[in-house]
Design a protein that fits this description.
single chain; alpha+beta; TATA-Binding Protein; Nucleotidyltransferase, domain 5; five-stranded antiparallel sheet; five-stranded mixed sheet; 12 helices; 44% helix
Length: 297
């Protein structure tokens, strides 16, 4: 079941009117029609129910706002009936905000959360592009794509640099609470009534949900949400921000600060301490990581 704004529901009804549909009366429904092996019902609550063997294929045909509905068989219009199809359908119907973070597992550099808001036509335009989970892209591609996404779409970024991060991490709630705050702040900057919001889940759903209380949004939290275009775009922007920040810190202190938290990072930390001492380490690193304890000169 999908949630539609009234404008999208009205557009759907207008598109269905000329088709070979049987219009029916359903309690608490604004309209209901049966045809092409599918029953489509829009309830007064704003929920849309599609019942049939290929609801994703039906929706992908009839919700294309830039072309007349196709009369081709359902299988020709759908890749497969799957969760990916369902997400694509939702994104094609209503504005979608995705949020993701970068820097959580990196000793050096900030913690970054980005949110990207895509209008339905923007989601369709990005389908099939290089916009995907930033972990599958090179640093160079993320820097290039991140700049393009910022120029063309609505983006909000929240960044907690190491000094602020180290201070906040010592408070109750620690990392998950910090992340929830950053996600909520970025989402609130972009959110409009009845937007669909997808968050790459990192902890108990209540953490983010409680911080977004009062917003008229359709909130989804799930693991590996980068399959959603808006979340993938957010992951790219977050990584672009992180990469830019760690480069700036490296140049400022004259040390190549490595990503991650492994042996190369330890080597960078030792070089940093040799040049600057341990005190300034709080300006570039997340001190609670075990890397701090492993620095031996």
């Amino acid at each position: 079941m999908l949630k539609l704004p009234p404008s999208a529901a009205s557009d759907l009804r207008r598109r269905l009117q000329p088709g070979a549909f049987e219009w029916r009366s359903v309690p608490h429904a604004a309209f209901s029609a049966k045809g092409e092996g599918t029953v489509v019902t829009f309830y007064e609550s704003g929920k849309l129910l599609l019942q049939g063997p290929d609801p994703a294929g039906f929706a992908l045909r009839w919700f294309d706002l830039h072309a007349a509905p196709s009369t081709a068989p359902a299988k020709a219009a759908s890749r497969a009936t799957s969760s990916a199809d369902s997400s694509a359908v939702r994104a094609a119907l209503v504005p979608t905000i995705g949020s993701d973070e970068c820097g959580k597992g990196d000793y050096f550099g900030p913690l970054v959360v980005a949110a990207v808001r895509l209008e339905p036509e923007e989601s369709r335009a990005l389908a099939g592009s290089n916009v995907r989970d930033s972990k599958t892209l090179t640093d160079e591609m993320c820097l290039r794509l991140g700049g393009a996404l910022r120029a063309r779409h609505q983006v909000a970024v929240r960044r907690l640099d190491p000094p602020q991060y180290n201070e906040a991490h010592g408070r109750p709630g620690a990392l998950n609470g910090i992340l929830a705050d950053l996600h909520a702040q970025a989402i609130r900057e972009l959110a409009r009534p009845q937007d669909r919001v997808v968050v790459d889940q990192f902890a108990d759903e209540r953490l983010v949900a409680s911080r977004l209380a009062g917003l008229d949004i359709d909130l989804e939290q799930r693991h590996k949400a980068e399959s959603e275009l808006a979340v993938a775009a957010a992951s790219i922007v977050a990584r672009e921000e992180f990469l830019t920040a760690i480069k700036e810190l490296s140049e400022r202190y004259g040390v190549e600060l490595r990503k991650g938290a492994g042996a190369p990072t330890d080597a960078s930390a030792r070089e940093f301490v040799r040049l600057h001492g341990r005190g300034p380490l709080s300006a570039v690193a997340k001190l609670h990581f075990k890397n701090t304890q492993r620095i031996r000169l």
